[in-house]
Predict the structure.
Amino acid sequence: MPGLILHLSAPWQSWGAPTDHTVRPTHQYPTRSGLTGLIASALGRPRDSANTDLNQLTYTVRVDRAGHREMDFHTIGGGYPRAMTPATANGTRRKEGEGTLLTERWYLADAAFTVAATGPTAVITLASQALAAPIYAPYLGRRSCPPDTPILIRTTDNDPAAELHRMPLHANAPRGAVTLSVKFIHETAPEPSAHPTTTLRDTPGPGRTWTSRDIWETRANLPASLCAGAGTDWINALTAYTR
């Protein structure tokens, strides 16, 4: 099946998890809704688009660098009159008696992921063209998280998920290691009898609704020689690989 190879790397990323609007957590790897939104944004689609075509894509994520969580602490309205501090994005004002609003926004710092996407040829072609020349600037989960490398690595007619076991890793090799254990996130069972590792409510539906999907997490021992560093050395290794 035709597919895409994508790379998601940035100083900060944030892949939305269920929230009460005062604490905004992030998942530890890209969500389906985040990936759909990334491609839809590159296509120039509005936020209320159904994206039924993009829902046909299936993703496999390789965790090159897991990164670490960091929190951005926000206060809203401290020291200002209530009429000057909207409580919501649509401009609704806070109620009488409400004090300063406190929020926590969580991010993944220094993380990197390589993603294989498969799907119908027409959808793969549409997505690749959009990511090569996006209408809206891409970001990784939130607008404050621009990527620090190109997102689209290439299209392929071979098995893109299998290619994740051969492509350079955007990470430093552990000292003295011959192999290293790398995590993979699958949307379909890697083996017929495998049980899902977890369930995520991150599949976008109409009207900004979400449904759940099963996730399978596996690990593979890859050669440490695939580690090409976390800077320009990785770009050079990737360029040589894709020639």
